[in-house]
User: What shape does this take?
Amino acid sequence: MAKNIQRLTPEEFEALMPSLKRLSLGTIEVARAVLVEGKSQAEVARETGKSKQLVSANCKIVLDYIEDVPRGWVKEEVCLPKDVMEEVRQIERCERAKLSG
Assistant: This one.
């Protein structure tokens, strides 16, 4: 995970909780420690006995909920010709429709 980790206020994190109900309490607590309390991933890893990679993954899972990234999807920034980007957006719309349908 990048060094510039998105921070959340306690209120923002609490508002997100209904969306996180499928996650384990451990995942939520690890993400809260990093994203809200501002602890480093290394510090949380030491405190919990989890690897830094797992702490990073837990934070990414929670941030994906904020950014509306479905599980198993990736979010990437790319530069494409305008017509190709429209094709990619159309594919995304179709795939999202499959998720909700």
Observations:
- DSSP finds five helices and no strands in the chain.
- The chain has a mean pLDDT of 89.
- Residues 82-100 form the longest helix (19 residues).
